[in-house]
Specification:
- The protein has about 120 residues and is an all-beta fold.
- Helix content is about 0%, strand content about 55%.
- Strands 2, 4, 5, 6, 9, 10 and 11 form a seven-stranded mixed β-sheet that branches.
- Strand 9 and strand 10 form a beta hairpin.
- The radius of gyration is 13 Å and the shape is globular.
- The N and C termini lie far apart (about 40 Å).
- The model has no long low-confidence stretch (mean pLDDT about 95).
Length: about 120
């Protein structure tokens, strides 16, 4: 089992930045694909970004604004979010798995609210 704990969410004004962190514990592996999903009110859950080895994936809606990275020594994955927009408001979930999309393990989620 892998446990994932997110942190770093909060309230920010449009145009601002936040960095989300996800600390992994348990049977972690640097070979796992790590990802960030989000679910906005009334919308489907969507994959925001994922990282596998040295390769990254970003959804079109966040490309150029969000960056995913990982520190294997700390078993932590990050999501740097810049130029935030009100439509980025959602609960953000960290996830891990063996392929993209990584859906085998989930964190509890962290709320991100962007005010206009």
């Amino acid at each position: 089992q892998v446990q994932l704990v997110e942190s770093g969410g909060g309230l920010v004004q449009a145009g601002g930045s936040l960095r989300l962190s996800c600390a992994a514990s348990g049977r972690t592996s640097s070979s796992y694909v790590m990802g960030w999903f989000r679910r906005a009110p009334g919308k489907e859950r969507e994959l925001v970004a994922a990282i596998s080895g040295g390769r990254t994936y970003s959804a079109g809606s966040v490309k150029g604004r969000f960056t995913i990275s990982r520190d294997n020594a700390k078993s932590t994955v990050y999501l740097q979010m810049n130029s935030l927009k009100p439509e980025d408001t959602a609960v953000y979930y960290c996830s891990a798995g063996t392929q993209i999309p990584p859906i085998d393990y989930w964190g509890q989620g962290t709320q991100v609210t962007v005010s206009s």
